[in-house]
Amino acid sequence: MSDLSFAETLDQIDSRSTNQSITVAENWLQGRTCYGGMSAAIAARAAATCIDDDRPLRSLLVAFVGPVGAGDTDLTAESLRHGKSVTLVESRLKQQGSVATQMTAAFGKPRDTVGAETIHVMEAEPRDSVPPAPFLDGVMPGFLKNFEIRWTGGGVPATGQKDTRLGMWVRHLDDMSRYPAECLTGIADVPPPLMMSHFDRRIMASSLTWSLEFICPPAEIRNDWFYLDYRLEAASQGYSQQSGRVFDANGRLLAVSHQCMTYFP
């Protein structure tokens, strides 16, 4: 099976069909399953097939039900409700008849009303002061070869540092300008579970559910560098809660993330 870039993977999706099949390439795997940011981006693109106007994506709720392996993957999308302002769509990724990823996506028209300025400020080291993180074959998940990462500190797996916060600059190596919503979705899941830094050895960990909320319309997102500021909120009994903020290179808050994760010491 040939490698596919992020954009090439999304190019397979027919915007006119709510029931179709695509191929997931092996270069997007982390272990036995597809990188969660890619699975979510595919589901988001599938959900958009139900939208026939200019309603931008406002939020997505993802359940990682089971592994998405390399190979044929069936996509379905169904509009749950089409209101005056908001449309809710459910999309699914299936393999061999079983649901692997389920998403509820909210698309909403802009409305002229009172807003509020964000209080969040990007606290990041200058990108050029941090060298690119090297890819360690056999140690790091293969999908990371599709990104350039400049880790500013915290959360490095298997260090035993017990970090509760991490920061990193990340960008796609692929041109994602045609897919702004999926571009950000693919970026926002790059940080590893912070609980992996609490052990001095490699452990298994994965996301169970994920919420990603877009602060600005995806059309305003540029395919450039993003800064990710993620924090461990709590962890017990093998489950952790991790939240994060995604900024553009100019410090504009683009999205907020929240994940429930499971880890196996």
From TrEMBL:
Superkingdom, taxonomy of origin: Bacteria
Q: Which InterPro entries match?
A: ACOT8-like_C, Acyl-CoA_hotdog, HotDog_dom_sf, TesB_ACOT8-like_N
User: What Pfam family does this protein match (any one)?
Assistant: 4HBT_3C
* Every Acyl-CoA thioesterase-like N-terminal HotDog domain range: 25-108
Q: Where is the Acyl-CoA thioesterase-like C-terminal domain?
A: 128-260
Query: Protein name, please?
Result: Acyl-CoA thioesterase
Q: What is the lineage of its organism?
A: Bacteria, Pseudomonadati, Pseudomonadota, Alphaproteobacteria, Kordiimonadales
